Amino acid sequence: MNLSFLATVVFLALAVAPALAGQDQWTTIQRGLYLTRAGDCEACHTADPAKRMAGNFALQTPFGIIYTANLTPDPETGIGKWNADDFYQAMTKGREPDGTRLYPAFPYTHFTILKREDSDAIFAYLKTLEPIDQRIRPPEFTWPLTWRFLMRGWNLINFKPHPFQPDPQKSAVWNRGKYLVEGLGHCGMCHSPKDVLGAEKDSGRYSGGEVEGWWAPSLSGDKRDGIGDWSKDDLVSFLKYGRNDKSAAFGPMTDVIEHSTQYLNDQDLGAIATYVKEIPARNDKEPARLSDDQNRQAQSVGGQIYAAQCSACHAPDGSGVPTMFGPLKGSSVAQSRNPETVIRAVLEGVRSAPTDKYPTPHSMPSFAWKLTDGEVAAVVNYVRNSFGNRAAGVDAGEVHAIREKPSS
Questions:
Q1: Which of 261, 364, 235, 348 is nearest to 43 (CA)?
Q2: Which has the closest alpha carbon to 44: 84, 102, 97?
Q3: What is the pLDDT of residue 12?
Q4: Looking at 28-37, 155-164, 277-286, 299-308, which range is the least confident one?
């Protein structure tokens, strides 16, 4: 072989190899960004928009406030001294490099199924962020919950690390949906009920749960108290655009749309919809009726308030305006077995999520300043029991308790 030709080949190989390696690294980082968005990391790990992923976000839990970790590569206050093994251990086993056990407000109980290559991609992306020196405040828990070693007992009861286990009887699309919903998406953290220890209950999974002072609605196949009448396309539109013809995202779900699901590709959104739409109905039965007094108040006081304050946007018959003002007629949120979200929406107002398709969010004003507890109860009962809706009644005491405990 001609030596000059061989030298040329070797030179080209040495020149191209770094470029290919750099391209692979860039691809890994971009994938890490995508997966970070799939996990909605920014919603919890960014308290100040000027300090992305630097933590110190005050996360409300039933046991007190926990401040989220600094995920920037700062060597003293962030993950600058961590390696990929350390990060994978934290994600899938809930332990820091020194063995400190994380509180399950960080969803390692879901991230445990994360594939190693996905964890490594997320870590590679986080290492590209600007290092920010920001120390994290200690949790505001009552004694003895400040003793981290107690988490060992919690984990023994509630946590078993395990890799992703696909169902061979299901399609690749369904299994991808399972991986996203049960793993990075950690949807059950909000949409499932919790026991007294704060662990998700196996019974009633995805039947709704309390989060940050709101009620995350059921994702089950129930038609009244769930999304049984939603199509897969309805669910994809909701996750991608923050609204569809049946509802609009508000409350904590606004952050999920803004920081996470609107960035997912159509294949992954379709996979999520495929998995969620197979969650069976659990509680699709006729709810309790309003008491005679509640019914009188709803039809008189509540009806008058609705006509004066609500009908301009939601229409006199509750049909709303498609993709602008959500319909109340047939709404699973309006008819939810837990009325907390409806009450809080009336008291505090809501704002929809801005997305590429709908960059201007719509807002509903707060009525806390102008409606008494009894009037809020009356209009909520009217909405929950008009237009063909049926739901249990609420009273002024329930409204007062929610008014006194603002959402985070």
A1: 261
A2: 102
A3: 46
A4: 277-286
